[in-house]
Each structure stands twice: as structure tokens, then as C-alpha cells.
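Hey, can you fold this one?
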Amino acid sequence: MSNIPPSSPSNRNERPSSRSSARSIRAPSPALSLDDPVSVRNQISTLKHSIRHQQAQVTDLESHILRSPRVYSNSSMASSSPSLASSPPPSAYAMRSPTPSSSSSTSKIAKRTSYEVLQGIAGLDSNLPLPMAGRRDSNASHSVNGSLDESGIKEGVPITSPRRTSSPTRTLSRIPVASVDPSGNARALAEEGASSSTSSSANLLRSAPIDNSLTSPVSPSLQPPSPNANNRRLSLTPGGTTKVLADLQTGVTNARNALENTKAQLRLSQRSVASLTRQTEDLKEGRERLRLENEGLNNVVARKERLLQEVLERARKAESEATQLRAQLKTETSTSKKSIREMESALAESTALSQKSEREYITLRDSLKHLTESWKADTDRLHEEIKKKEEKWKGEAEVLGQKYRKLVDEVKESRKGEQNVNRLREEDKKKAEEIEEMWMQEIEKMKERIENCGKESEGTAETARQLGAELARLRRLMQNVGKVMAGDEDDDDDDTGPLHMNHS
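Sure. Predicted structure:
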């Protein structure tokens, strides 16, 4: 909606007409790129915002029209054409200058009037009746297109009723007054025609919503004025009635055209929104599909990169291991050569040591023989000593066994004493529990007694409340009875007073 070009290049300060705006809305926007989801989303949001703004303006104008009724004057009936084809199009008033009263008011006062505000909102080709700031003379109103009265509605002054007073001499049909039965049918026909015309015009105005997006200049000749101050009769001839009906029909057709344009724009915007939403959904699906494909390709690339890195790491490890093995082979060969030399020298030493050890072995064998003989003598002596010590240990063991038996008897007696102590302790616990249970029973009994006392006190309080309520009710009854008796005495006094007067 923001890319719509104006259709009237000659008048740049004015807004474009309804037809040109409708054509421009139907034309596709070249600046919109369907491949860019951001621009599509922005276009959808602007379309929704403009539709909501137009609907709000239409509802405001409808409520304003319904709150302010309109009545056509003699000048409008005299200047309007009887046929629908002779009514000028809304675009014919696009180049009209504003009314002199509005220009003078804007030149004198910087503050804008409600008429100017509504005129700016509705547009110059909206065919809406707008309230005026003040009354003008009929000459000034007839000078603008010579069809409608510009002093239609006083701003801030309520209109009592837009309907004319019924009269038997006024009729809205083509039947002459002289041909009607003079017994009262003329008044009925006039009232029926006036009510039908006003109700039909009001219903048509209510059923025709106006689109404010059709920005075009307001024609002041299409503004219906209000009745004049003297409330004069508008027309006495059938021609005026047909002109009024023609004006109403032209207004209805204009309103219908505006409604159709609004509906066409709304349908077009809805279709464009639907197509844009479908395109956005398709773009979202394509984006999701491409995202999934991209993720799959990224996963494949990452997996291949990981495999390549693993292969490179393995190659590096193999190269490092090969270098290490070469260095290890060199070190092992050098160490093996050194160890062979050392082993040869050790072998020569070991042969010399073996010869030496053989000689020492011979000497040791001889010495071992002498040692074994001496060890046998020592062992015999030790056996005798051990036998003596065993006999001595047996006697000591018997003494210790007797002492142990005595100790076991004493331990058994001490255990019996502990059992007695435990039994006495358990008996003490049982007695303490019995005492505790007895006290608990006593406490429960006392608690029940206290609860019973509380319930009895609540019952007495309830009876006291009931007695108080009964006492208050009896007092009220006594007061009411006293008032009734006093009223009866007053009535008796009033009745006896006139009787005494009559007797006298």
C-alpha cells in the first residue's frame, strides 16, 4: 500500500480519487520482491495495518453519520436531476476549491475546526454529509455548484427531528392532492410517504459503509444541509418530491459505489495477503528444506573432515613411531654390542671365579663335616634342656588352669548379677509406662470434660442469642402494634370531625 503512486499528477497537494486509487491498488507493486522474505513480511504487515486503519475510519464515519441526521432543502431539490444517469461522478468535484467559510476560518484562526478534520479524514469525493462550524447565507451556499445548502448543520447545536411535520396538503407521491378523498386519506398518505422515504434513506445510509482509503476531494454540492431556522415547507409540487428521491438515489448509488470500491479493495488486499502468506509459507518450506540439506551437507563435510584429520593424525603418529623405532634400533644395536663385549669379559671373569669357587667348595666341605659333628653334640644337649623345661611348664600350666577355673566361676556369677540388674531395669520401665498410661487416661478424661463444658457454654450462648432475637422481634411487634393503634385513633378523629360539623 505504501508503493501506490498518485493518480492525479496535476493536483499534487490533493489526494487521489477513488477510481485511480482502486486502479493503483489493483496494479502489482514492482518494488516487491517475492524472493526476499523480509520484504514480503514487511508488505504483509503494512497491508494489514492499512486495512485495520481503513476499517477503523469507516466505523468512525458510520457512527458519526448515524449520530447526525440530515434533511434536504429546497435548493437541493430544485438543482438535483431526476435521473440517476444525470448525476455527476465523484471525480467531477476533484478540482473544486474549498468553501469560503472554511478558508476564512483557517486564515483567521490557526485552530482547525471539526469540519476540516472530518473533511481531511473522509476525502473530497467521499459523499459524506459533514457538520458545519456556522451558518451561511443561501447566496453563498448556492454559489458553490448551486445544488446544496452549505449551512447544513450547526456545530454543537442538536437537531430535534429531521422529519417534516405531516400535512394533508403535502405529499411525496405523484397523486395530486385534489384527487385524494377529503375524508382524511390525504393526511394518511402524506404521513406514510414521509415515513417510508425517511426510513429508506436512513437504512440506506446505515447499510453503506464508506472507505476512507478512497482519498479524493469532497464535493460541497453533495453535502446535505439541515433545515432552516423558520422550518419552512420544502416543496408543494410533485416535481420536488421526485428530485428529492433522485438525490437520495444518487446518494445511495454513490454510497454503494464507494462500498463496492471498498469491498473490491478489501478483497484485493485479502487476496494479496493470502498470496503473500502462501508465498511466505512456500519460502519457509523451501528455506527449511534447504536448511536441512545444508545441515546434511555440513554433517557430511564435518564427518569427512574428521576422517581426514584422523588419517592425518594416524600418519603423523606412524611417522613419529617409525622415527622412534629407527632411533630405538640404533640404540639397541649399540647397547647389544656393548652388552656382548661386557658378557665376554664377564665370561672370562666367571670362569676364573668358578675355578676359585671349586677350590673354596672343597675347603667348605671339609669344614661342614666338622660343623655337623659339633651341631649333633649341641642338639643332644638342647634336647635334654628342653625336656626339663617342659616338665617345669606343665606344673605351671596346672596352676594356671586352676586359677582360670576360679576366674570362670566368678565371671558366671557376675553375669548372673547383670541379668538380675537387667530384669529389675525392665520391671522399672514397665512400671513407668503403666504410670504414664494412667496419667494419659486421666488427661484424656479431663480433656473430654473440658470439651463438654465448652459445648455446653456454646449451647447456652446460642440460646441466649435466640432469646435476644425473640425479644427484639417482640419489641418490634409491640412498636408496630402501637403505631397501628395510633394511626387508627387518628383516623377515627378525622372521621368524627366531619360528622360533628354536619350535625352542627
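The first helix runs from residue 18 to 26. Let me know if you want another pass with a different chain boundary.
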